Every structure is written in C-alpha cells, then in structure tokens.
Amino acid sequence: MHRLFALAAGLTLFATAAAAEPIEVRIASHVSELAPEYAQSVLFAKKVEERLPGQFEFKIFPGGQLGKESALIDGVQLGVIEMVDVASGVLKLDSKLGLFDLPWLFDSREHVERAMAKGLEEAVRRRIESKADVKVIGIYENGFRHVIDSRNPIVEPADMAGMKVRISGGKFRQGVFESLGAVPAKVAWGETFTAMQTGVVDGAEAAIYGFYEQKMQEVQKYLSLTKHVYTPSFLMASKSFFDRLTQEQQKVFIEVGREITEQSYRDAAALEDRYLADMKGSIAVNEVDLPAFQQATRPVYQSYIEANGKDWIDLVDAAR
C-alpha cells in the first residue's frame, strides 16, 4: 500500500515537473542588434516573463541568423518558427499594405502614432491576419528612411535629379525616386558600401541604424533626413504555436504586445537620436522641405487608390 502510494506520488511529481518545463520561444529578425526590432523583442520577452515567470524560455535571434526576412515570414506562417519581428517584407503579403511604401505619407513619428491609435493599427493587424497564417502580436517601428549621398545635400525635389540611389522596396518606392528624377539602382545591401566607394551609386536610402551599422558616413558627405518612407515593424507569432498556448498565455501575449507599443516608439526614437549624434561628427546632416516633396509625389498615390481604395489614406490624413 505504501509502495503504491509512493509510486503514485512519484508519478505526480514527475508530471508536475514535466508540466512546468518552460516552452521555448524563438523570436527571429533579419536585422541586427542595433535595429529597433531587437529592442522590441527583448522588451516583449521581459514583460511576458514578468507576467508568467518560468513558463517560457525566450531566445532572440537577430541579424538573419535563422534566415533572411522572406524566409522568416515563410517560417512563421508554416509554423517552423514561433515568432518573428520583421518589417517591409510583410507589406508584400497584400497590395493594400503597400500603403507604407507611399512617399511622404507621415510628417513625423507623432503623426504615425496618432494615425495608428485612430484605427490604422487595428485595420492593418486584421488585414495581415486575414492574408497570412499568423497572429499579429504588435505593430511597432522599423523607422523612417532617409538618403545618404556623396553629391549634394537634398533639400528640395530638384536636388535628386540624376542622382544614382541604391533603393529597396517595391514598385511604389522605385516610382517615387524616378518621378523625382533620380536613378534607382538595385544593389545588394552588403555591397552598397563598396558601390559608394567606387562610384557605382551616389548614395542610398535606408533607416538611420542601417547607415550607422555599415559606417556609411565614412564614405559619404551628406545625410538628408528625407523621411520619405516610414516602415513599421511587425511582431508576429505562428498561428499554430499561438493556438497551442493556454487561454491565459494567449491573453498575456496579446496584452503585453499592446502594452509595450508606446515604449517601443520611445526606444526607437532614442536609438535613432543616439546613432545620429555619433554620425554628425563625420557627415553633414540636413532637414528637407517636406511640403515640397509631399506635393511633388502626390500623383504616385493614384495607382494605389485605384487598386486599394483610400480609407487608410483618409485615416492618415485625419491624424495629420
């Protein structure tokens, strides 16, 4: 009798220990530890651990360790990776998400936050989840994109005429640069520094952290804060992984994902300010005539509106 009780007690302890085994959660990104996505992933993991101590073992994989952005998005949809924090690759899931490739859509980070809070974030979240097998945990910031070059400061649209610029993104972004008289060039990001040194391109467009980590200020003269495109970051979970969580765990993931939004914006702004301050000793930094660029590129919006409507653009304009 005692032996049976001891055996039963032992099995109960074993089952309890097994149940307490933390769930491994990998959060992968295609960008480095210098990018906002890394800080967002770390913050999310920290806050979930505070709410559900010991239930998860978070492992952060920045810098494309688990694959390039497109592979990470495929992986989270297929359920072979638990979570990703990615950016512009998500916009390719649906043409309506191409809103974020439209030029000079937002005036400032504060404008972005107002538009997101007034319904844009929820609309984007629903759209992604309807088009992909993922759960959108949070929408944060990858950052505004600017232009760095060796030819001249960019203050007004005419300053870009004839400039060879390495760009990324889809047809909207390429069309924007072409409409301003620039010559878009497709160069691998890892080869852009050398392309600048050798004169293959005059410059490139990217977020500040991208310029900073590649030390592009060492081979370029001007950094124009064009803010021509704002790209969100998307913290997403595999639907199959998310569905395996308990109701309490799902609730905490969703709540934490939303709770860290404001802090994520503040952290992204602080990172950009820090990198910019470090770069200013090596390169001339200038602002641009924002209304002039907005007016010059507004015709680009028409093809987007014809294909996707203007309800999201109206949300952005209402928050301007």
TrEMBL record:
Arranged from A to Z, the UniProt key words for this protein are: Receptor, Signal, Transport
**What InterPro entries is this protein classified in?**
DctP_fam, TRAP_DctP, TRAP_DctP_sf
Which biological processes are named by the entry's GO terms?
transmembrane transport
Q: Which domain of life is it from?
A: Bacteria
Q: Which GO terms describe its cellular component?
A: outer membrane-bounded periplasmic space
Any keyword Cell inner membrane? no
Matching Gene3D superfamilies, A to Z?
Answer: Bacterial extracellular solute-binding protein, family 7
Pfam families xref list: DctP
What is the residue range of the signal peptide feature?
Answer: 1-19
Instruction: Please state which protein family the record places this protein in.
Output: Belongs to the bacterial solute-binding protein 7 family.
Q: What's the protein called, per UniProt?
A: Tripartite ATP-independent transporter solute receptor, DctP family
Organism (species): Tistlia consotensis USBA 355
